[in-house]
């Protein structure tokens, strides 16, 4: 931007403003860049919103996900991460205990170290006896 500084923070617009901006793109016959310039918004951001709107109305490019599909993907990816962690906890505990008998203090230290990054309840189900660190 000439003479100014560009902020790294993105602006949030109301749903009404976004709907009106997209409607203006569709009805005005102007380019997305032209409408964006008139409204003082990013052309890339407006183009992205207009593309999502077309997909939501079933007029998007083939394979373009709708908002509902994007939200479902986000939910499923989160669930996959959580499940992967749930699988990783018993696996890591199995490796820990396979190495031989462990003292109570070693088990306690293991649980304490892991509970900062893992679900402790899952971890505690994997240990042969319940140390005090387990809920």
UniProtKB/TrEMBL annotation:
SUPFAM superfamilies per the record? Homeodomain-like (SSF46689)
User: Region (Disordered): which ranges?
Assistant: 44-72
Any one Pfam family match given in the protein's UniProt record, by short name: HTH_Tnp_1
- In Swiss-Prot or TrEMBL terms, this protein is called Transposase
